[in-house]
Design a protein that fits this description.
A two-stranded antiparallel sheet has the order 1-2. The protein is extended. 6% of the residues lie in helices and 18% in strands. It has 72 residues and is mainly beta. It has one helix and two strands, in the order E-E-H. The mean pLDDT is 80.
């Protein structure tokens, strides 16, 4: 919607951001959802927060049945 963007996982609302919520900037820089964008699905492995990678657990796999995007 013009005033918010909401994300669902398995039919359950997980996150909803409202335009200007908590005093956020409502300009295009602070509200990027008025511009075209891509949805990225990523399996991030390792790094600073994840620590060392255990090679015995590789390869990783992400199974996605479908992704739905609704537009009014």
């Amino acid at each position: 919607d013009d005033g918010y963007i909401e994300f669902f996982v398995d039919g359950v609302s997980r996150v909803k951001w409202e335009r200007g919520q908590d005093g956020r900037d409502t300009s295009p820089e602070g509200w990027p959802f008025d511009k075209p964008f891509y949805i990225l699905l990523n399996v991030a492995v390792g790094g600073f927060f994840g620590g060392e990678i255990d090679d015995s657990t590789l390869p990783y796999e992400m199974l996605v049945d479908y992704v739905r995007v609704y537009q009014k």
